[in-house]
Amino acid sequence: MQTVIAFIIVFGSLVFFHELGHFIFAKRAGILVREFAIGMGPKIFGMMKGETLYTIRLLPLGGYVRMAGEDVDQIELQPGYRVGLILNRDNVAEKIYLNQNVQNPNVLFMEVERADLEKELWIEGYDEENQFVRINVSRQAIVVENGTELMIAPIDRQFNSKTVGQRAMAIFAGPLFNFILAFFVFAFIAMMQGVPTYEPIIYDVVEDGPAADAGMQKGDYVKAIDGDPIEDWQELSGTVQEKPGEELTFLVERDGQDIELTMTPEALEESGKEYGQIGVMYQSPVEKNPLKALVFGVTQTYDYTVLILGLLGDLVTGQFTIDALSGPVGIYKATETVAQYGVYNLMNWAAVLSINLGIMNLLPLPALDGGRLLFFGVEALRGKPVDRQKEGLVHFVGIVLLMILMVVVTWNDIQRFFF
């Protein structure tokens, strides 16, 4: 149960911040956001606030922000429709009932002749006394049909009415917020636990190893190897690994005095490659500094981004197969393992997953945010949008292919972890 809760919190947080990016920049562009959903499938919770429905859905495997104009969600009042109108004090329609009897003495019933609910916002038709009337419609008017309420979306509040830049930013903001989330998580961990300084200080010495035989001790600060200055532990480790079997002279500081130690790294082999080892252990000192914590957040986000992009490159070039990919089952099992090592390790895992989610969504593939951004780029170059039906067909095919990939990856996960 703890693993389930940890998985829901981690994955739910990633989805929430991803969709929050879409939501914030859609609202900034003046787009009507009909629904902000966390999860997929049947609704288990819903709350209407302002013009947006906020929902939590059954399957914690995604989410979405539904914007006006993206789908076929516009109400068209055809000639002959019988509607009931609730008017405000200025005789402007605030609520429109479609083809249903409403027991309300304040409702004005009319048969529609013509209507415009996108640009000029009016309805023309004949009232119950067969008088021809024209009623203006509020920009926030609600249409009620079969018990379902839907706010009209004037043309200037629809997604496709916005500039290419505004639409692109509303889509790009989702992955962007995943990177921002990762940065803040890494920075928070660094503030709580401290930032590693990576100073080349020996934490412990292995008995009977080259370092112990040469007289190296716990707490020695390595300043140079063979006369070359050593700045951090990574440089020390790299120098030793690159020189197996070669005699090295270490300049170390101990109790304020400089001491020279000579040793020969033991030659070891792994995956057909030889490397050196002197038998010392390392535990990086940490420093609690808010400014350095912010820098650490940036560097960690950058490093993991480069690492994931490198792995994607390996996948494209065939250096590892699709069997190495993991889906929801694999992420769940990995979360189960990481959660055993404490909340900070779980947070670090969530930050890495957030970067991964951001990168995956930016791939220029149909149905992903990157695919939509690609179409916006084409539109910017052509000076006119791609035919919506053609674009919709491409995204539909992309969704089908992604679902097939998800099934394959999930099956691989099931075989790997349960069989």
UniProtKB/TrEMBL annotation:
<feature type="transmembrane region" description="Helical">
    <location>
        <begin position="392"/>
        <end position="411"/>
    </location>
</feature>
<dbReference type="InterPro" id="IPR001478">
    <property type="entry name" value="PDZ"/>
</dbReference>
<keyword id="KW-0812">Transmembrane</keyword>
<feature type="transmembrane region" description="Helical">
    <location>
        <begin position="6"/>
        <end position="25"/>
    </location>
</feature>
<dbReference type="GO" id="GO:0008237">
    <property type="term" value="F:metallopeptidase activity"/>
</dbReference>
<keyword id="KW-0862">Zinc</keyword>
<keyword id="KW-0479">Metal-binding</keyword>
<keyword id="KW-0472">Membrane</keyword>
<dbReference type="InterPro" id="IPR036034">
    <property type="entry name" value="PDZ_sf"/>
</dbReference>
<dbReference type="InterPro" id="IPR004387">
    <property type="entry name" value="Pept_M50_Zn"/>
</dbReference>
<comment type="similarity">
    <text>Belongs to the peptidase M50B family.</text>
</comment>
<feature type="transmembrane region" description="Helical">
    <location>
        <begin position="168"/>
        <end position="190"/>
    </location>
</feature>
<feature type="domain" description="PDZ">
    <location>
        <begin position="201"/>
        <end position="267"/>
    </location>
</feature>
<keyword id="KW-1133">Transmembrane helix</keyword>
<keyword id="KW-0482">Metalloprotease</keyword>
<dbReference type="InterPro" id="IPR041489">
    <property type="entry name" value="PDZ_6"/>
</dbReference>
<protein>
    <recommendedName>
        <fullName>Zinc metalloprotease</fullName>
        <ecNumber>3.4.24.-</ecNumber>
    </recommendedName>
</protein>
<keyword id="KW-0645">Protease</keyword>
<dbReference type="Pfam" id="PF02163">
    <property type="entry name" value="Peptidase_M50"/>
</dbReference>
<feature type="transmembrane region" description="Helical">
    <location>
        <begin position="346"/>
        <end position="365"/>
    </location>
</feature>
<dbReference type="Pfam" id="PF17820">
    <property type="entry name" value="PDZ_6"/>
</dbReference>
<dbReference type="InterPro" id="IPR008915">
    <property type="entry name" value="Peptidase_M50"/>
</dbReference>
<keyword id="KW-0378">Hydrolase</keyword>
